[in-house]
Write a structure and sequence with these properties.
mainly alpha, Multidrug efflux transporter AcrB transmembrane fold, 86% helix
Amino acid sequence: MSVATIIGFIALAGVAAEFGVVMLLYLHHAWEHQLALDPHAGPEALDEAIREGAVQRVRPKAMTVAVILAGLFPILLGHGAGSEVMQRIAAPMIGGMVTAPLLSMLVIPAAYRLLVRYRLRKVSKTSAALHPNPQGN
């Protein structure tokens, strides 16, 4: 693997990390908004908040990917002085720009859902242990 390819992977890692962090911010904001409306919101409200947060990111993410791909394809197809090095930088970026948005739109919301549902179960168990039912039911 050449230095140029490694640089392409580093650039891709930066974009993918930005995609993930921004997605988490939107998911968390949507969940916090749902909790502000209903402090006792359950799993159904969580699912709705995740859908809302993820949908808000579709258009900006698609525009970002389209612009990056539009800029990288001419570099990948170019012929001229230094084009071989630039192609090695562009190739991993193009491959990653196809997969990174899918990862951030599918895997990150699913992982966020698992984490928050785990926390909800943990809080409800703790609450039940601290406040047992006085009627014995």
